[in-house]
Design brief:
Length: 94
């Protein structure tokens, strides 16, 4: 089972092996900020956005399959990478 990993290039970290970057600056980042919407609402909106983007073939999750997802959220915080992982697993079993 793949997981979410914490990554922050500004802390001098290197990308873990077999991981994909999903921070806001990537195509897989959450466009809804915690600062603007609060964490719970930003994640709720991201889930809706992700379903819509997949339905209309605007976002392909295949490049993320089989990889850990690296984001700069702390591991004890809910993160959009958790939603991505769940969606990848859901699509894999469908």
């Amino acid at each position: 089972m793949h997981k979410r990993v914490h990554f922050n290039r500004y802390e001098g970290q290197r990308m873990p092996e077999n991981s994909a970057l999903v921070t806001r600056q990537t195509r897989y980042g959450n466009p809804f900020t915690v600062e603007e919407f609060g964490r719970e609402e930003a994640l709720r909106l991201f889930k809706i956005y992700l379903d819509w983007a997949i339905k209309w073939k605007l976002l392909d999750l295949d490049p993320l399959a089989g990889k850990d997802l690296a984001c700069n959220c702390q591991l004890n915080e809910a993160c959009h990478a958790d939603i991505l992982l769940a969606k990848i697993n859901e699509l894999k079993t469908s």
